[in-house]
Amino acid sequence: ISAGTVEQIYDDMLMGTTIVVNHGGGLQSWYCNLDPETAVQIGDQVDIGAVLGAVGGTAMAEVGEQSHLHLETLLDGQPVDPRDYLD
Known about the structure:
Layout: E1 4-12, E2 16-24, E3 27-38, E4 45-46, E5 53-55, E6 70-75, E7 78-80
Antiparallel strand pairs: 1-2, 1-4, 2-3, 3-5, 3-6, 6-7
């Protein structure tokens, strides 16, 4: 979505391996359903286009679907359309 800091990496029971990037100003992006082997660690600074990890099949909530990235974007804890933050 944009440059930021890796704030959390965890295994969510429903959404699988999840990486949360804090972009500042209350904006966060959540990258879910990733492979457990991530390419970043908590505290890492990331830029646009940085590889965070590979798409996996860890999201139990989406087990019936093909492997894909589940992306969520939140502003001040409320869901927002990620397209509003892409160039």
